[in-house]
Amino acid sequence: MLAIWLQSAAGGFGLGNLGGLALPILFFVALYFLMIVPNQRKQKKWQNMLSELKAGDRVTTNGGIKGTIITVKDDGLILRVQPDGVKLEFAKQAVAAVTTDTPAA
Question: Exposure of 20 by Cβ count < 10 A (0-12 exposed, 13-18 middle, 19+ buried)?
C-alpha cells in the first residue's frame, strides 16, 4: 500500500520509477544500521578481549567450562579447572568471556 502511494506521489513530481526504488533502499540502509554495525562492534570488542588475555585471568569457554589461564600461546591457552586442578588446552576462539569472582553489590 505504501509502495503504491510512493509511486503515485513520485509520478506526480515526474520522478517515475525512482519512487519505487526508495522503499527497498531505505530498507537496506535500516538493515545495515540495525544488524550489521552492532555485530561488527561486538566482534571487534571480542577480538580485543582475546588479544588481552594473560595468565591468571579467569575465563568461561563457549562450552561453559570455567577456569584460570595458566599459559597463553599464539593460538591457544591452557586452563586449570576445578575441583581437581585438571589442565585443559583450548583454542583462544573458544573463550566466551573473562569472568571475575567479585560479588555483585
Answer: middle
DSSP state of 33: I
Rounded distance between C-alpha atoms, residue 83 and residue 70, angstroms = 16
C-alpha cell at 73: 600461546
CA 88 to chain centre: 26
pTM score over 0.70? no
Q: What is the pLDDT of residues 67-101, one digit of tens each?
A: 999 999 989 999 999 999 999 999 999 999 998 75
Question: Would you tell me the crossing angle of helices 2-12 and 18-31 to the nearest 10 degrees?
Answer: 130
Nearest by Cα to 95 from 70, 76, 73: 76
- Residue keyed to cell 573458544: 94
